């Protein structure tokens, strides 16, 4: 624990008074001697039980600290000089300032006066209250015996100036030398000293105010955990999902009607779909401010559960197109992918129909025939931007053992709908599964090519591409399936 070694000083590190800091005595012998001499008072003995001694900041002036430092640092020449707790007779005596009369005397000294280019005149201008008869006509040469005083530089005082005569008669050789320049300079120096003193006082007061505010701000940050929350807010600005959810939770903590951002409510929908019981438990126990089921349903909107290129997809494309001003932002790719799903038949109340059978939609041109068959795959079409970051699902179909002909018809159907909405499809991307390769060969009129004429605009090209991730995966599988040790692979058939 740090205690101030100054006599009658009660500062210690345990109290943590704002604005008080502690400084160890310098190890330099001269500085240490100067400090001990300034601290030492009547009947005072240094503390021998402590390994080091410190002095609090109350005993230093503001000019003793270095400027431009984040923490208080004393200058090498600083010594304790402020002792408010000492009696008046024990405090160090301040230096006596120079008086103005002494400065005026120095200004009127012969050495200083001779350096000024004053106008020299006759002896008449040097005597105040003397008649012309009492002063010799040939100047001061005949009156003063010393030749060194015969030519004293001075300036002429006009004769029109009225001067009160002294009560007692003076000698005829006494004279008064008037120096207007020195008197004016003394007054100016007094004014400047007073201004300097006022400015120093103002600067000291402002520095004390700044130090006080800095200490309060530091304490406020430590007490309120503002630094940790500021990091969360900064991460939320960078679109971090967890940070966005935390900021919404803090903002909605005391609200009766909370509001949610789009990112937050999307994740709440996923959370409720994963576990309805866990979601309702968190909401019921007020562990988090979660929206109700009705709020989530309003965000999702009313859907009939239809498949294919639906009316909701058309409205979404129309809304996205309004926000894409440049023509280049409308250029995109059509990604085709398929995923496995569980074979299950469910009843949809909104459509009043069973969902889970193979369904290609009503307008795709490939209606289902025969008995209903449970679907085991979901075929998805996604629109991905090339110059802007957009990804929009534009169609999905329930399939089982989809053929190349069916996939070819679905590609043309979705491609036509996207082009009609206003987007420009420059490329079709899919994996190199044999069904996908067969559908692309039909799109290329029998022979697979890198680019073909666009089905919706013959003046444009439509590029065909396979997903590079699946290509690398298939190459790896081929090397693992075949014995290629100590053999070479020729690139000529592949290029």
From TrEMBL:
UniProtKB keywords: Cell cycle, Coiled coil, DNA-binding, Metal-binding, Nucleus, Transcription, Transcription regulation, Zinc, Zinc-finger
Nucleus among keywords: yes
SMART domains per record: THAP
GO cellular component: nucleoplasm
Domain THAP-type: residue ranges: 1-83
Protein name in UniProt: THAP-type domain-containing protein
Keyword field contains Manganese: no
Family in the record: Belongs to the THAP1 family.
Pfam families: THAP, TNP-like_RNaseH_N
GO molecular function annotations of the record: sequence-specific DNA binding; zinc ion binding
Primary residence: nucleus
Subcellular location: Nucleus, Nucleoplasm
Segments of this protein annotated with the region Disordered: 84-114
Coiled coil: 189-223
